[in-house]
Amino acid sequence: MAELTSTSGYAEEADDLFVRYEALSAPETHAHWRPLFPAPPVRTLDIGAGTGRDAAWLASLGHSVLAVEPV
Q1: Which of 27, 35, 62, 71 satisfies CB 3.0 to 4.6 Å to 40 for a cystine?
Q2: What's the domain range around 66?
Q3: What sign does the CA torsion over 14, 20, 21, 22 have?
């Protein structure tokens, strides 16, 4: 069995992860998170932002968001 680097392993699974992530109901998921955030505006760092869906949601609430996708 060949050893995978983190990026090659992710690349092999990216399509499946994307489909599963986007299948989650954003409003339902965000309803669970919203009580955890302080009242806007606050600076927020979204590490592993993926499509940016959650960063966009936070920004729509008035937060200042920096979204990154580390490699």
Answers
A1: 62
A2: 26-71
A3: positive
